[in-house]
Amino acid sequence: MDKKTDLVFEYFEKKYGFDIQKLGIDKYHIHHIFQNNHKYFNNKNSIKMLILHIEKMIDSQIKDNKKKIISNGFLEKEPKKEIPKPKIVEEFKEKDKRLLLIDSKDRDFLKYKFPSYFIFNLKKPIKKEIYITEVIFRNTSNEKDSSDNMENLPYLILDFGIGNQSGSNNFLKSASAILTNYETRGDYRYYKLDTKIFLDSTLSKLEIKIRKPDGNVYNFGSLNNDYMNTVCFLNLQVI
């Protein structure tokens, strides 16, 4: 390399404060410009003219990046673009669930004599699902005219009129839940369940039937039919 090349290269290092080789301009590039344009730069002002020529080249490259030149001589990296997080769309949310507690003593006694069959009107419609967690019955094993006293029943059918199960008869196919094992506490039987029912349409009322395996409505006994306290209680979560 010649002296002119060294002088021009040193000039740009001092002026710009960073390694101009990062822009693709090095001593070989400067020397190449001299060699290919020696007639143009072959005079006493050749160094000055070459500097002006290269400055135009540099300015065009760093025109939009001058603000990004930092004091230690390096160009700042482009800021990382934030990748938008995918939106998760959930059809059902846990916060949408609400408790629905139904007590047979709150039924219309004029319309529904038996606590084993009544319709409960809903203030808020059920749109998506019903989750049955607990059913409580008054123990009727000592009632002379109760189904439990007169018959040996292996299970009971909880029927909301919305079941769509597979079963060997129509009553099992329409079952919302099958009631078998229970715990007796005082005068009541407690059935723990974990049954979810998905709805095909919105419900504004819930029809509740307690059936025997033969499909007939369960009889809690004449004393309990007119009983003004709890005979049947349902603990539900609904959406």
Protein model, in words:
24% of the residues lie in helices and 26% in strands. The chain has helices at 3-16, 27-36, 38-41, 46-62, 147-150, 170-173, 222-225, and strands spanning 98-103, 117-126, 129-138, 156-159, 177-179, 183-185, 188-198, 203-211, 232-238. β6 and β7 form a beta hairpin. The strands form two sheets. It has a five-stranded antiparallel beta sheet, with no helix packed on it. Strands 2-8-4-5 form a four-stranded antiparallel beta sheet, with no helix packed on it. The relative contact order is 0.17. With 239 residues, it is α+β, with helices and mostly antiparallel strands. It folds into two domains: 3-68, no CATH class; 96-238, Jelly Rolls, CATH 2.60.120.
Short description:
By secondary structure, this protein is an alpha+beta fold. 24% of the residues lie in helices and 26% in strands.
Distinctive features:
Jelly Rolls; alpha+beta; 4-stranded antiparallel beta sheet; 239 residues; 7 helices; rod-shaped; 5-stranded antiparallel beta sheet
CATH level 3 topology of the largest domain: Jelly Rolls
Instruction: Sketch the topology as an H/E string, one letter per element.
Output: HHHHEEEHEHEEEEHE
Radius of gyration using CA atoms only: 43 Å
Count of discrete structural domains: 2
Give the secondary structure arrangement, pairings included.
Blueprint: H1 3-16, H2 27-36, H3 38-41, H4 46-62, E1 98-103, E2 117-126, E3 129-138, H5 147-150, E4 156-159, H6 170-173, E5 177-179, E6 183-185, E7 188-198, E8 203-211, H7 222-225, E9 232-238
Antiparallel strand pairs: 1-9, 2-8, 3-7, 3-9, 4-5, 4-8, 6-7
